[in-house]
Amino acid sequence: MAAMEASSSSVTKSDCINPLDFSTASNKIVFSSSAVDFLFLCHRLRAARAEQVGKSYAQAGELEKQLNEETQRQQKLSDAKLKAKVEVSQRNQRHYMGEELDSLNLKELQSLEQQQLDSALKHIRTRKNQLMFESISNLKKKVRLNSVNLI
Q1: CA-CA-CA-CA torsion sign (105, 111, 114, 119)
Q2: 3-state secondary structure (DSSP) of residue 5
Q3: What angle do CA 34, 22, 41 make, to 5 degrees?
Q4: Angle 49-32-52 (CA atoms, 0-180°, nearest 5)?
């Protein structure tokens, strides 16, 4: 054992290492001259390390508590934002369906009407394009069939 030292049965100040220096904090065993008594790190070192570990655990607990509180606060804020978005979407849907229009002023009614007209026009144009492409596709098939029949 490389960490063993032969000395007298009493622990001197040099046997107690700095509790904040973890590089030398191995289990230092001190043997008496008769090799019977085993002494580990001095009591003061153990007490200092225990106090340091206790402080570290307390700090970690406090940080975890703060993190949990911040997470809960962010979650509540996110929930509130989502609820507001849902309420706005539901209100807009009711307006599009023609319900609860009495609470809107003239400008809002005109805007709603314009949005509905734009939406309907977009739907009509999409359907018209779809029908035109289908018609073009059918005409191309007929042209191919006629060209095959002519040969």
Answers
A1: negative
A2: strand
A3: 25
A4: 0
* Alpha carbon distance 89, 92 (integer Å): 5
| Residue 44 pLDDT level (bands cut at 50, 70, 90) | low
Residue that the structure tokens 């805007």 belong to: 111
d(CA 106, CA 109): 5
Residue 39 contacts residue 13 (beta carbons within 8 Å)? no
Dihedrals phi, psi of 98, to nearest 5 degrees: 85, 15
What tens digit of pLDDT does each residue of 112-143 get?
999 999 999 999 999 999 999 999 999 999 99
Do 35 and 60 form a contact (C-beta atoms < 8 A)? no
Helix or strand run (H / E) with residue 150: helix 106-150
Residues contacting 48, CB < 8 A, separation 6+: 19
DSSP letters, 48-87, are HHHHHHHHHHHHHHHHHHHHHHHHHHHHHHHHHHHHHHHH
Backbone angles phi, psi at 13, to 5 degrees: -60, -30
pTM above 0.90, yes or no: no
